[in-house]
Input
Amino acid sequence: MDSQTEAIRSLDAKYYVDPEFFEREKHGVLAHSWQFAGHASLLENSGDYFTFEIAGESLFCVRTATMEIKAFYNVCQHRAHQLVQGAGNMNTIVCPYHAWTYALTGELRSGPNIKVVPGFKKESICLSDVRLENFCGFLFVNLDPDAKSMDECFPNVREELTSFVPHIESLKPLEWISIPEKCNWKVSVENYSECYHCQLNHPTFARGVVKPQTYDIQPQGYCLRHTTECQNLDKMSYPIDLSSNEHAGEYSSWFLWPLFSFQVYPGNILNTYHWRVVDHEHVVVWRGWYSMQGIDENVIHSLAVQDRQTTVEEDIHLVESVQRGLQSRGYRPGPLVLDPSCGVKSEHSIKVLQQWMREGVITAGNTVSNNSR
Output
């Protein structure tokens, strides 16, 4: 590096510990980005629904009578009572407060004694819908009605993911693993988005799944694409068949900013991360593992157990220690290690990620997709 060039430093601690920054993110990136709602297999039948939260908003997805999937804010248009809880099946959406009743498509059907209201037009009342996309069987929503599509935000991801997992549309969740972490969501996402720490902290992953010396991460729109080769077969911690698919000997992941990642482990095993933000210093990370029709497979189940007991457990201690350190008056943001040749010991992906994080505290009314610079 030129001695006259100033090093690029990591973000100030306030991005991770200041509640005000988190409130700005709720109206910024968290309200203007594509985020995971749930898997489409949760809505197999007409009337199936499930609830979830994004940016402090309660939302729900539902399968209509014509088998379309729609997403709505979970609030009655009468006097604001929440409409549904958890997951289940319903023929109509009935508010528990005053029994105002909506079709599964959101239109008001009836309400007790509403005919006495002069000029009442029930056809003018409808639940507030939310933009939704089905991305290879995974449902994503965006609170910004004017946001760019997922394919625009994450170019080529759909095609690449399908080439790694051709049967992805036939997969169902086999196992969900919930991991509460006492840290800011960005600390956890940063930890996921570099492998600079892997050889030192993740011996099972680094020696029994991937070849760290081949690991690299590159931006692809608002996606960070991780690529590496699998470990030598005699060192792999689980069996794989290299002839099963042209990508069977590769590991790849697609981190979709800000809170989701598809991962394909060697052997074309799909798994996912998604982060549910709680507040400025708590996040819940969900690990998903998938199989054909959700049928139990010993290799996938064993790998999920191995992952939880090794990489996931190791990361909990790392991110929670970082969060404690960020609150120290002795911390000064250090320089990022930016290797021009990239590779596993470079933090070039963190440079990109932290620029998105700066954009993430933009004021409400602007979108992340309009802040590419």
About this structure: Residues 298-326 form the longest helix (29 residues).
